[in-house]
Input
Amino acid sequence: MKYISTRGDRTPRGFSEILLEGLAPDGGLYLPVEYPQVDAATLARWRGLSYAELAFEVLSLYIDDIPAADLRDILQRTYNRTVFGTDAIVPLKPLEPGLCLEALSNGPTLAFKDMAMQLLGNLFEYELARRGEQLNILGATSGDTGSAAEYAMRGKQGVRVFMLSPYGRMSPFQQAQMYSLQDENIHNLAVQGVFDDCQDIVKAVSNDLEFKRRYRIGTVNSINWARLVAQVVYYFAGYFQATKSNDEQVSFAVPSGNFGNICAGHVARMMGLPIRRLVLATNENDVLDEFFRTGVYRVRKSAETHETSSPSMDISKASNFERFVFDLLGRDAARTRQLFAEDVEQRGSFQLQPQEFARVADYGFVSGKSTHADRLATIRDTWERCGTMIDTHTADGLKVARQWLEPGVTTLVLETALPVKFAATIREALGREPERPAALQGIEDLPKRFTVVPPSVQAVKDYIAQNC
Ligand SMILES: *Cc1c(COP(=O)(O)O)cnc(C)c1O
Output
């Protein structure tokens, strides 16, 4: 399988070539030249495979430059009970007839980002060893992504992580999760500032091309194709668990921010998985809900971006969205470039032509929005009626899923985090503490390993130079 850019660069590149990359050189996002098609016979063969075997079947359609035995080994080491605490990896939790959760948060950091990041860690280690290279991953985090990256890369050969976080501003649980890692290749830099300071420093360091090349700086952000394709697997795994035969359809409801998770659902549907609807849920940051209602995509300014109680969905723009628009427009790269490289860059928005927007229905997308009050009500209702405690992001997904339920079609709501990560809102909704997995009892008391640095680009550069 070869990969091309959404903005017109058709230089064919293999999976291993784009694995360590972010954007394509022309500023677009990578997509496969075509989606491999899965027919009824293939679905029948895949039903009943273990998660790791299923992952091998799906991913080997997209990866032909890693020997099959190596890929199989990497997937067995990633998707197993030791890492995810369950043989099913993504078990379903029934709520009521026709509605269940698909649990994507059984990984080490209790959020769905582990599903892809754990694989990325093993793929990076493999590819860097093969090339005899090293990579220094630099990132900024206010919680979720940074800890998923650290738990994926800890102890890996050839990879170091330098993760900036705002000193003293994360919850005690989040601080404990990140700072308790004692691995030598993980560097937590607690910046004396806010999250924006951390992000500005990462941008400034990455814009210094000489420094970037010299210290082999890379990232693991959500536009990485390997992360996206790893997520395609759990749409298949959810489908097989929820259905008895391959002529049934299911719908998925997805708490969305950067459009990475639901874009994997779009890819699964394009491959031929019988998905009826992809129900996109946003919080108060409703850039994507607005698009799916109106055909207008309008990037928000920082002042218009809300800090909500489902913080991992607090986005001003959706960094993977261009992939879907490219497909929606019949893969017209010139039109995609015009919308994203011109209209969005210059005016901060675009509006599709009516005949372009009309095609959205063919792709199964519908959407809705959920607010803080909706989250509280949904968490409370799910606890009282089903005895299931859900986190704030999953609550957004469930709230919107209920607006689109159809008789005879099961809806799977993707559970993207566990409630223990968002204790304050759980207390507000239920007046009690969230449940905590046994392995994480008392992690706040573990010794912490981090370095406090001033909010200065030079201080961060100096630290990286001294620790490479
Ligand atoms: C990242 C994240 C999301 C949003 O996923 P996208 O791929 O950015 O759309 C939702 N919930 C949780 C808990 C997350 O960490």
In short: The mean pLDDT is 95. The chain is about 45% helix and 15% strand. The radius of gyration is 21 Å. The pocket of pyridoxal-5'-phosphate is lined by residues 111-113, 144, 222, 255-261, 312-313, 393, 416-417 (CB under 6 Å).
